[in-house]
Design a protein that fits this description.
362 residues; alpha+beta; Rieske Iron-sulfur Protein; Naphthalene 1,2-dioxygenase Alpha Subunit, Chain A, domain 1; nine-stranded antiparallel sheet; 8 helices; binds FE2/S2 (inorganic) cluster; binds fe (ii) ion; Rieske_2Fe-2S_sf; iron; metal-binding; 2Fe-2S
């Protein structure tokens, strides 16, 4: 595996942005010890239902807040109080802002340094999403959300947890520009292909006849920031959304999740609609697994030997770099890449195809 510095991504080791850190159902089972962006982190759900993410190690004696389940307050279910959490060792209590607000055996003032870093966390589409900024700045764009998630006709995904991949996430993003792998890797060569960069958004539009399904497969796919991909896909009368989330674990190591959201024929969806949706997700996972398996076995492409009929890998990497730099410098990257880009020898999307994403990507 190769690291951010080897790809010359920018001053920071990890990118700024919204990232999936857990599935909501996992967090319902209790506090979690997680590791992302090279840090051990404590994730829990407060009694009001809000998810909270704090640095893991208690400033008192460096106990991990959520990694051990042996302490009495954990066993008797008293670790979470309101939206605060008590350290399992001596019971110091930390609020969702990371400040210690109670030491159970002490009347005097609480030391000012008894504070943990707290990270913005939101729940969207069954995922717990965290905003990461290496300098602790607040979010400068919103976490992605699909309106269909709150429409009862759409069957929610149960995420596929694909685990860790020893590849830098920049190479996952390369897939967006990769017009020419669609035939050899996925059996679905594209007839039209386009990428578009719009500030923190990276859009790909492509379509062609799928050898397996024997019908036209069209997709509009977009990254909202560097970590979360959504894709609207239509083939035959099936309409579906796919989610692929990548979150840096350590430099050069990434964790990946996958899901598919499908429209049922009935409201509420029947058992058979749900079984159909699971089948669609399994099919989408199979297609994605073709990439995943290639990634598992490839060497790092620190530079792509890009030829004129390839997609715009280099532009995609420039877009990606904005997240490794200060937000004030993002405009410089936008100037270099914003707009639509085409691939030599491939058509551009028609008006009819563009209707697929009307009003969707913002
Ligand atoms: S180590 Fe956390 S309260 Fe003592
Ligand atoms: Fe792919």
């Amino acid at each position: 595996m190769a690291k951010s510095e080897e790809y010359s991504l920018g001053p920071h080791t990890f990118p700024r942005g919204w990232f999936v850190v857990a599935e909501s159902t996992e967090l319902n089972r209790g506090p979690m010890a997680v590791h992302f962006f090279g840090k051990d982190l404590a994730l829990y759900r407060g009694e009001s239902g809000v998810p909270v993410m704090l640095d893991a190690y208690c400033p008192h004696m460096k106990t991990h807040l959520t990694a051990s389940d042996s302490a009495n307050i954990v066993i008797v279910g008293k670790q979470i109080e309101g939206d605060s959490i008590r350290c399992p060792y001596h019971g110091w209590r930390f609020g969702p802002d990371g400040r210690c607000d109670n030491i159970p055996y002490h009347d005097g003032p609480i030391p000012r340094s008894a504070v943990l870093e707290s990270y913005p966390v939101e729940e969207s589409m069954g995922c717990v999403m965290m905003w990461y900024d290496p300098e602790g700045r607040k979010p400068d764009y919103s976490a992605p959300y699909l309106q269909e998630w709150s429409d009862p006709q759409w069957i929610h995904w149960k995420l596929d947890h694909l685990g860790e991949l020893a590849m830098h996430p920049v190479e996952i993003l390369d897939n967006m520009a990769d017009a020419q792998h669609l035939g050899p890797t996925h059996g679905a060569p594209c007839e039209y292909f386009e990428t578009e960069f719009r500030d923190h958004l990276y859009v790909q539009r492509q379509g062609g006849v799928h050898a397996g399904y024997g019908c036209m497969l069209m997709s509009s796919t977009w990254y909202t920031g560097p970590g979360i991909l959504l894709s609207k896909q239509s083939f035959g009368d099936v309409l579906t959304y796919e989610l692929i989330a990548n979150t840096p674990v350590d430099d050069g190591l990434v964790k990946v999740w996958h899901g598919a959201l499908s429209r049922a024929s009935n409201i509420p969806p029947t058992e058979s609609d749900i079984a159909g949706a699971r089948e669609i997700q399994a099919g989408a996972l199979k297609a994605f697994s073709s990439d995943f398996s290639i990634w598992k076995h490839k060497k790092p492409a620190l530079r792509v030997l890009q030829i004129a009929s390839d997609g715009q890998f280099a532009k995609g990497r420039i877009w990606y770099k904005q997240f490794y730099d200060q937000p004030e410098n993002a405009g410089g990257y936008h100037e270099k890449v914003n707009g639509k880009h085409h691939v030599k020898g491939l058509e551009t999307p028609s008006f009819e195809v563009l209707a697929l994403e009307e009003g969707l990507i913002q």
